[in-house]
TrEMBL record:
Keywords: Cell membrane, Cytoplasm, Glycoprotein, Lipoprotein, Membrane, Palmitate, Phosphoprotein, Signal, Sugar transport, Transmembrane, Transmembrane helix, Transport, Ubl conjugation. The gene is SLC2A4. It catalyses: D-glucose(out) = D-glucose(in). GO terms for cellular component: endomembrane system; perinuclear region of cytoplasm; plasma membrane. This is Solute carrier family 2, facilitated glucose transporter member 4. It comes from Chelonoidis abingdonii. It is a multi-pass membrane protein. PROSITE patterns: MFS (PS50850), SUGAR_TRANSPORT_1 (PS00216), SUGAR_TRANSPORT_2 (PS00217). InterPro entries: Glc_transpt_4, GLUT, MFS_dom, MFS_sugar_transport-like, MFS_trans_sf, Sugar/inositol_transpt, Sugar_transporter_CS. GO terms for molecular function: D-glucose transmembrane transporter activity. Belongs to the major facilitator superfamily. Sugar transporter (TC 2.A.1.1) family. Glucose transporter subfamily.
Amino acid sequence: MFSVSGITSTLVLSVFTAVLGSLQCGYNIGVINAPQKIIEQNYNATWLARHNASIELSTLTTLWSLSVAIFSIGGMISSFLVGVVSEWKRAMIINNALAFLGGALMGLAKLGCSYEMMILGRFLIGAYSGLVSGLVPMYVGEISPTHLRGALGTLHQLALVIGILIAQVFGLDSLLGSPELWPLLLGLTVAPSALQLVLFPFCPESPRYLYIIRNKESKAKESLKRLTGCSDVSEALTEMKEEKRRMDMERKVSITQLFRCRIYRQPLLIAVVLQLSQQLSGINAIFYYSTSIFESAGLEQPVFATIGAGAINAAFTVVSLFLVERAGRRTLHLVGLAGMMVCAVVMTAALVYLDRVPAMSYISMVAIFGFVAFFEIGPGPIPWFIVAELFSQGPRPAAMAVAGGCNWTCNFIIGMAFQSMADACGPYVFLIFAALLLGFFLFTYFKVPETRGRTFDQIAAAFRRTPSLLDHEVKPSTELDCLGPDDNA
């Protein structure tokens, strides 16, 4: 088996196969924007055929807003099920059923003359994406060697932004964003799922899942040998045995117990705030409304500037991949937040003075590109995989569910509220995000630990030794004491 510095062909195949789900999630975030006018025309034609009258503008706006927002609602709901679904054997394979059904409904919506099919398809693909946002970082984190966990964890975000970029390119009028081909543009989302189904049988299960959850030591050893390329996996197995010993003490943790038990409050607060720092940074305002922002900045070809922002998005995720194990998670997150805050202020100034200084259109474009670049250095990739690092095996699925739910909820809120905020505040809207970024920077600086190069158990043990952020009481010595003798998993 080919192996270089702990990277084996099996590990590469397994990570690649897993992040195909992330790519599909990104594709569906970006694919809906380009063909908006064409799909709205199709909705109008469907309404006309049913009611012999053109659709009212308010009804059309409602249908389109629902088509966009229902994706986040699906993700929001399914993300809370990650803790349950993660214990299913081959959960990511089963999840592809949602992708195939959602993709088929969207791809056939025009043929079926049904905007209901489009909306239901968007909901199902959102539900698929919500599970992906929890399952993929969890699986990649569990199969990765400790010294590569950060770099490989970044690949979830890299695949996601590549998916957005692919959707932006395919959505051009000259490619699939035409009145005839837009159903193919939406239905193409099933392609990564098909490839994933072909490749998954060649990928091993997570050794942590096999040993700690399923209690199958021999299969866990076999999985470790395939992933590491080493015949002697005793050191990794010893680490998992210690983690299992602690898990036997702490039991399986539900979402309710996660909130109730003081010993989990500090890592849970950190996990939630990091997710908020990603979604409330203003990045989705850029993604959802980049074309209109570039238009207001005076650019003649805003769609290509949007694609340029997508390319920068992907390029700087690669930069983060190489830096995360050298600079550390905390440092990159701080740099990203500080850079975004500066770019938000510059962007505001450029948009305010645009009418008086035409050259400010270029300054605003540079500020947007810088905003996206700094996002992918830290706040983009790090919150996803650091949640898996902050918790041991017992509470990890519940923590991923809570963090994912917070992420998708904020995604939905920003998607629905930003346009109203922009109408009310004008070019000053990004000062709101600058203030939020400052708050997240201060929280990260004072409260977030560095997890680079530490095992899951070492990180969990550090929280057991450290006073909580929310109280300074004497903590129970073990999670078992905290949950109490009568709690059920």
